[in-house]
Amino acid sequence: MTTLSLTSIQKSFGEQIVLKGVDFTVKSGEVHALLGANGAGKSTLMKILSGDYERDGGVITLDAEELTIKTPAHAKAAGIEMVVQEVDTALVSSLSIAENVTMNTFITGPAFFSWKKRYKVAQELLSRVGLSLDPAMPLSQCSLAEKQLVLIAKAISRNISFIILDEPTAALSTKEAQHLFSVLRELQKQDVGIIYISHRLPEIMELSTKVTVLKDGYVTLQKETSGCTSEEIVRSMLGNELVELLNDEEDRILGDTLLEVKQFSVPGTGETLSLSVREGEIVGVAGLVGAGKTETARALFGADPSKDSLYMKGRKVRISNPQKAISAGIGFVPEERRKEGILVDYNVVENLTLPVLKQFTKFGFIQRKREKTEAEKWIKQLGIKTQKSSLLLNHLSGGNQQKSSIGKWLLTDGDVFIFDEPTKGIDVGAKQDVFQCIKNLADNKKGVLYFTSEIQELLAFCDRILVIYDGKIAGELTKNEATTEKIMHYATGGHYGTVRS
Amino acid sequence: MAQYVHKEHVENDINTTKLSLQEKIFPFLYRYGTLLVILLTVIGFSLANDKFLSYQNFTDILRSVSIITLLAIGVTISLIVGGFDLSVGSTASLATVTSAAALVLYRQETIIAILIPIAIGLLVGLLNSFFVVKVRLPDLLATLAVMYIINGLHLTFTKGFSIYNNMPLSEGGTAPGVFLPSFLFIGQGEIWSVPVPVIIMLIAVIVVHVILQQTRFGRLLYITGGNEEAARLSGVPVQRYKMYAYLLSAFFATLAGILLAARIGTGQVSAGAPLLMDGVAAAFIGFSVFGAGKPNVIGTFVGAVLIGILLNGLTMLNVPYYAQDIVKGSILIGALAFMYYEKKK
Fold first, then answer.
1. Which among A48, A30, A33 is positioned nearest to A190, based on CA atoms?
2. What residues of chain A lie within 8 A of the CB of B237, using their CB?
3. Where found (chain B) (predicted)?
4. What per-residue string of b and e applies to A152-166 under the rule 16 or more CB within 10 Å gives b?
5. How crowded is residue A232: how many other Cβ atoms within 10 Å of its Cβ?
6. DSSP secondary structure string for all residues of A454-468
7. What whole-number distance in Å separates Cα of residue B280 and Cα of residue B86?
8. Range of the domain at B239
9. B18 has a chain A CB within 8 A of its CB
10. Out of A17, A21, A357, whose CB is closest to B216?
11. Of A295, A327, B21, B237, which has the fewest beta carbons less than 10 angstroms from its beta carbon?
């Protein structure tokens, strides 16, 4: 039984103080959930523990013995491994699964290591995380969920005492998440201490033994999971502002059809589908990871253009690139926020005005004052929390980045807005703002296509829910008939409970 | 909730902690390090040689960096869109020999001797953008290949010989044309005792700076380099902007080549090749000027001036030319080290 303790940890970046004296303890065989809104300091705390950042103050002890953790190697030596959220950054996609899993042998192992032995070791590790893949397969062919398990397998290839998981289920389907939980429970039985960062309350209640909530760099809640309720956790995350879960009972009045596609081929999936959205309508498009949601959304916006045309207010247009989509009145908030949605090295103003920069241009020159005034109006309206509008997006939290990613389309004043997993990795408070923003769009007679795997969100405020399975629309449900079970039934191809390949 | 009790206390603690010396000096060096180096170099050379600090020497330095600066502006623009144009050196060589050929071999007027190389230069730019944008080759590889092709082309055209006044021709006799005085004026003339190349360079720096900082065109060039996919999904025609960047890059390389021909009064083969590395160095040193952290024209100009001052001063101190590269390399390392150190934090 080992105990890892962090005592009054402090960390600041420049003038911004991120951690203001945090205490955190995890024992072997424990699943300690770490929660907090974006910007609360969760990731920073874990990066300090895993040696990514150096702490400004505080003590880290392992069984009362003080640890110096200045580099990832120090953390590894102490038996601490981290499974990062962006799994691709921790694995080498051009190598085989076996090489990735046994990566540590390249560093510490013998100079020669036979392939036969490597495959055998990899096979064993993979079976411990419940993966039955060919170790010789290139990692690039793995799904996201598989890569995550590969990363866990890599972590347990050493004798670890503690493992940190940063939002491991963010992009997993329910099925995949359940599998991950069983792997984690197995690790727990082997006396590994697990630090589990997540935004998802149900899984935390199910999995964890202890909960710590961070807010603004302080610990606001720390107790046994069995002794606290979801409401208590949410309250600690948000402070005194109570979350009012969006409950959208009244029926919206729907107008004419805005966007319609018939037998529209999606290049990413190789399938065709039909869908439509009307004025003032929020159409939810549900589907598990890999069902073809992102591919469909991107085809509709012309990011991966389809060969077929779509109908915008009854007018036939072929969207061969995003510019055509924008001029047709379509906006798109992509799933990969930092890679596709925003420019992290540019400020809020520059991000917001990008699609409509022409409006602020006279004789080719940007009218910066007008641009700034207009952008600041939207910053206020969207509730983007930033000290000043000239701050780079990199310094804002995920939720505020997402608001910028959405906000730029509000400036274009389009008709149809496509959202792809807009609440991925953002906190409860920011989620509320995003929902409100989408509701406002519908109230202003805009059409919304909402692609997500978060079924609860769809049930909360969609007028109509389409379910995608293998690139095709498997079912359509009205607001009144939709339930989690029905959506899952379609999303799994009509055989709820069977394993998807 | 016990932690809340300590809140005020902890915050005070952190606020009153004095910034360490390192935390104060590094951001300062990051912003003004390059300028500081220039200042120190000027002081050092002035003390070592009393001829260094004179108007004549000052204009000499600016004249010597004018060609490199023009070339480096092109490199900077290619860096802005996230590319890299390695072909600028041979494009400059090509411009040098085509303008010389137009004057000496074909007896053309000055204006023709300027327009023809520019037209050819833009074709090189199109070739680069074709490989980068359409064929989607990595920038470095595409422009490396084009660099060889253009270098070979201009050597084939001249059969490896430089072009000069009254040169003998293979079919007998001497070349019909000469370097016209109006053409040489671009490279050697002075207006109010300011060398013409310096004027051209300053105009180019100011115009490009204003375009990059104040116009939509400039913003979109930067945005394209900042995150190509996000820019594309926001409706920026990123492919077209990359093409513009390579066209501009080739244009400025051509300008440098013409200036070079006018300056030395011959169509020297491979004259642009040594300019490439200095141009690239100037553009990268420019990253660090005022802590910009990204390619920018003012920085590039400062970088070129720094290189120019060093070469000039070292030559005055009788440091052999072959040892001067050591200094160039060290300056580049120094500038980049600060930038990347700061970025990592």
1. A30
2. 321, 323
3. Cell membrane
4. bbbbbbeebbbbbbb
5. 14
6. -HHHHHHH-SEEEEE
7. 9
8. 37-344
9. no
10. A357
11. B21
Task: Tell me the sheet residues that pair with A197.
Answer: A34, A166
Counting one residue from A and one from B, how many pairs have CB atoms under 8 Å apart? Answer: 86
- The distance of Cα A330 from the centroid of its chain, to the nearest Å, equals 23
Specify the pLDDT at position A339: 84
Q: Do B215 and A366 touch (CB under 8 A)?
A: yes
Tell me, yes or no, whether B144 lies in a domain: yes
* Strand-by-strand arrangement of the A3-13 sheet: A16-27, A3-13, A57-62, A65-66
B26 found inside a domain: no
In whole numbers, what is the pLDDT of chain A averaged over residues? 83
Structure tokens at A188: 């727990």
What is the distance between the alpha carbons of residues B143 and B134, in angstroms, rounded to a whole number?
Answer: 14
State the pLDDT at residue A427.
Answer: 74
What domains can you pick out in chain A, each with its CATH number? 3-238 (3.40.50.300), 257-329+414-425+446-493 (3.40.50.300), 340-413 (no CATH)
**For chain B, how many structural domains are there in total?**
1
Q: CB–CB of A210/A224 below 8 Å?
A: yes
CATH number of the domain to which B305 belongs = 1.10.3470
Kindly report, residue by residue over A389-407, the tens digit of the pLDDT: 888 888 887 788 888 888 8
Q: Decide if B123 is inside a domain.
A: yes
Q: pTM score, two decimals? A: 0.74
Say whether the ipTM exceeds 0.90. Answer: no
CA distance B215 to chain A (A): 4
- Between CA B227 and CA B41 the distance in angstroms is 37
Residue B207, in any domain of the structure: yes
Is the CB of residue B207 less than 8 Å away from at least one CB of chain A? Answer: no
User: How confident is the prediction along chain B (345 residues), in pLDDT tens digits per residue?
Assistant: 333 333 334 444 444 445 566 667 777 777 787 888 888 888 888 888 888 888 888 888 898 899 999 999 999 999 999 989 999 999 999 999 999 888 888 888 888 889 999 999 999 999 999 999 989 888 889 999 999 999 999 889 888 888 888 787 777 777 787 788 888 888 888 898 889 999 999 999 999 999 999 999 999 999 999 888 899 998 889 999 999 999 999 999 999 999 999 988 888 888 888 888 889 889 988 888 887 778 999 999 999 998 888 888 888 888 888 888 888 888 888 777 776 776 655
Q: In sequence order, which residues have a C-beta less than 8 Å from that of residue B283 and are 6 or more positions away?
A: B72, B75, B76, B79, B295, B300, B303
Query: What is the SS3 assignment for B188?
Result: helix
Using DSSP's 3-state secondary structure scheme, residue B50 falls into coil
Nearest to B11 among A20, A339, A365 (CB): A20
pLDDT, residue A488, reads 74
- Strands A282-286 and A447-452 come out as parallel
Is the CB of B235 less than 8 angstroms away from the CB of A17? no
C-alpha span between B300 and B76 (Å, rounded): 7
d(CA A221, CA A212): 5
